[in-house]
Amino acid sequence: MTNHSMRALVVEDDRSWQQILTEILSDAGLIVDLAGNLEEGLRLLKDTSHRLAIVDLSLAGSDHRNHDGLRILDAMRRQDPACRTILLTGYATVELAVSVLTEYNAYTFLRKENFHRAQFRELIQRILATASAFEDLSEQKNTQLSRESSFSVPSSPSSTRALVVEDDAGWRSILSEILGDIGYQVRLCNSFGEAAGCLRREKYSLAVVDLSLSGLGLREVFRGEEPREGYQLLASTKLAGIPTIVVSGVASVDEIQRAYEQQSIVAYLEKQTFDRAAFRRAIEEARRARGSSSELDVLTDREREALVLLAQGMTNKEIAESLVITTNTVKRHLKAIFEKLEVHTRSAAAAKAISAGVVVERPLREIADED
After folding, report:
1. 212 CB contacts (<8 Å, ≥6 apart)?
2. Within this chain, do residues 74 and 209 fall inside the same structural domain, yes or no?
3. Is there a single domain that holds both residue 192 and residue 223?
4. CATH of the domain at 354
5. Alpha-carbon separation of residue 305 from 26, 219, 241 (angstroms)
6. Are 33 and 180 in a shared domain?
7. d(Cα 141, Cα 173) in Å, to the nearest integer?
8. Which distant-in-sequence residues (6+ apart) come within 8 Å of 114 by Cβ?
9. Which pairing describes strands 31-35 and 185-189: parallel, antiparallel, or unpaired?
10. Which of 90, 162, 214, 302 could be stapled to 184 by a disulfide with Cβ–Cβ 3.0 to 4.6 Å?
11. pTM (2 d.p.)
């Protein structure tokens, strides 16, 4: 493959969008390779590596059912994993977009109807800046980060596995070094999508999260708002029962209080005043929090998800729709939950979830038992 440092790939069948994207990427200093269909995209992937790729979901005109873009993302994940990918499309549901982020490791998802040139230019600059910072690390530092990543030790037990979600290469190095010295096997992530995928696939005993990541949050993008994906990750680590430390440069009083009260974090450390000793103390506190196990630790991840939705007052049908499973599967999950938690009613199960702190309290009379 040729050098990728100044190349971008655009896989888009609409000539107008090809022109718009090429103009913006060229202004950012990138050489743009264009592909108008699946075959051209796969050929360019094979011939040349890229720093950045913009991929349309549907590469067959107005056929909303065409998802050739996913085949491009899958091939890129395998053949050019260092390339940052953005899915830009007019045809996609939120559920499909979540799949793109978590299963295909896309950097972010954008809808064409919410596209703004200025915001897109800013996003491209952030991606390029992050990539440049990472490439400027010495070969020794890259080797160290790779060694400390859980990819190099896939068999490590979850009791010694830590997830670090940080978009700055320097901070990833600092945090992983300290955690590695203590004995953790570290999984490094630099985006919301990558971290969300890791949380779905693996178990961790500790998470360290930066609240302000460089990517765009999914649902906020749909609403055209500026996101804060860090809070979404805190909600996920809380649901999974993972003690979490926030290390962030964003530190307003309201945000700190929100992180403590709503997401039950162990500690909030500001980057401006970061102290290694304070970070080590927070890690020890997280270990103690992990040691005081919750009643919900006996549940699988899927059972915990079902329990939280039950405690929010959802019916079996609504839980099934939310988790994209059948109602019979929901019933099996709830039967297992009742047995493990030693309860007999939905209200009692919901009370357990509230007691464990994984769901905001609501009047239990709103939760009706079903057959």
Report:
1. 228, 230, 248, 249, 250
2. no
3. yes
4. 1.10.10.10
5. 44, 19, 12
6. no
7. 8
8. 221, 222, 224
9. unpaired
10. 162
11. 0.43
By the 8 A CB rule, do 192 and 166 touch?
no
Here the tokens at position 277 are 């000793």
HEC profile of 49-116: CCCEEEECCCCCCCCCCCCHHHHHHHHHHHHCCCCEEEEEECCCCHHHHHHHHHHCCCCEEEEHHHCC
d(CA 230, CA 271): 15
Euclidean distance between CA atoms 360 and 371, whole angstroms: 25
Instruction: Tell me how far apart the alpha carbons of residues 348 and 202 are, in angstroms, rounded to a whole number.
Output: 29
- What is each CA distance from 220 to 37, 115, 223, 258, 265, in whole angstroms? 29, 13, 5, 19, 23
> And the tokens for 318?
């609504």
pLDDT tens for each residue of 20-77: 999 999 999 999 999 999 999 999 988 888 999 999 988 987 777 889 999 999 998 8
Q: Which amino acid is at 13?
A: D
Taken in order 184, 187, 188, 194, the sign of the CA dihedral is negative
Among 93, 38, 91, CA closest to 65 = 91
Domain that holds residue 216: 137-292
Can you tell me which residue has the tokens 């954008």?
110
Strands (E), the chain: 7-11, 31-35, 52-55, 84-89, 108-111, 161-165, 185-189, 206-209, 244-248, 267-270
From 133, 152, 176, the end of a domain falls on 133
pLDDT in tens, 327-348: 999 999 999 999 999 899 998 8
Q: Which of 145, 143, 155, 156 is nearest to 183 (CA)?
A: 156
- Model confidence at 145, pLDDT cuts 50, 70, 90, reads very low
Q: How many CA atoms lie within 13 A of 150 on its CB side?
A: 27
Q: Total domain count for the chain?
A: 3
